[in-house]
């Protein structure tokens, strides 16, 4: 029997550019402010992820730290493969999520996460801006079954 899961996809906050490598880029002060505002919105929402799966880049780890502090008992995993990944690679990382996790928060980068959200919802392209969170209801029993057209966008927060 199919049950619904929630996949929340968050693009990292706005980042500065003056760093030796793209992987090391840190959040700008505007990016931190965006995420603090988003965190306040999330406090009032029903979103309660059991797991956060984040890219290991500096700006995504900072994003994860800012947002994760409001969630009790959330497991956090950092995956370097998500950095600059195509949707197929991100699907593979999500597929490794335990099937008993009903709500997963993914923190990543464009263009991969916009393409991922667009594929799952299969309703046209959604361009995610820095600090944007898209909540998708997915109709799968196991994260391994997540794919094109398996979800519906329920909410967009920014």
Strand content range: 15-25%
Fold-level CATH name: Rossmann fold
The rounded distance between the terminal residues' Cα atoms is 34 Å
Q: Which geometry do the CA atoms define?
A: globular
Element-level helix/strand string = EHEHEHEHEE
Overall strand count: 6
At CATH level 2, the architecture is 3-Layer(aba) Sandwich
Q: What structural class do helix, strand and pairing data support?
A: alpha/beta
Count of domains: 1
Radius of gyration computed on alpha carbons: 14 Å
Features:
158 residues, 24% strand, 4 helices, 6 strands, alpha/beta, Rossmann fold, 28% helix
Can you describe this structure?
This protein has 158 residues and is of the alpha/beta class. The radius of gyration is 14 Å and the shape is globular. Helix 2 (58-68) links the parallel strand 2 (51-55) and strand 3. Helix 3 (87-95) crosses helix 4 (112-121). 28% of the residues lie in helices and 24% in strands. It has helices at 29-43, 58-68, 87-95, 112-121, and strands spanning 4-11, 51-55, 75-79, 103-108, 133-139, 151-157.
Secondary-structure blueprint of this entry?
Blueprint: E1 4-11, H1 29-43, E2 51-55, H2 58-68, E3 75-79, H3 87-95, E4 103-108, H4 112-121, E5 133-139, E6 151-157
Parallel strand pairs: 1-4, 2-3, 2-4
Antiparallel strand pairs: 1-5, 5-6
Helix pairs in contact: 3-4
């Amino acid at each position: 029997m199919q049950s619904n899961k929630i996949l929340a996809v968050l693009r990292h906050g706005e980042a500065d550019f003056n760093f030796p490598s793209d992987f090391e880029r840190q959040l700008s002060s505007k990016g931190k402010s965006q995420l603090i505002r988003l965190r306040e919105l999330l406090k009032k929402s029903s979103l309660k992820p059991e797991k956060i799966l984040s890219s290991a880049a500096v700006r995504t780890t900072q994003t994860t730290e800012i947002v994760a502090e409001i969630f009790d008992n959330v497991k956090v995993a950092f995956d370097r493969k998500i950095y600059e990944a195509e949707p197929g690679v991100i699907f593979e990382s999500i597929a490794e999520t335990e099937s008993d996790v009903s709500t997963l928060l993914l923190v990543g980068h464009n263009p991969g996460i916009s393409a991922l959200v667009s594929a799952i919802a299969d309703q046209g392209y959604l361009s995610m801006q820095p600090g944007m969170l898209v909540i998708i209801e997915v109709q799968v029993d196991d994260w391994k079954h997540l794919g094109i057209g398996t979800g519906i966008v329920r909410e967009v927060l920014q």
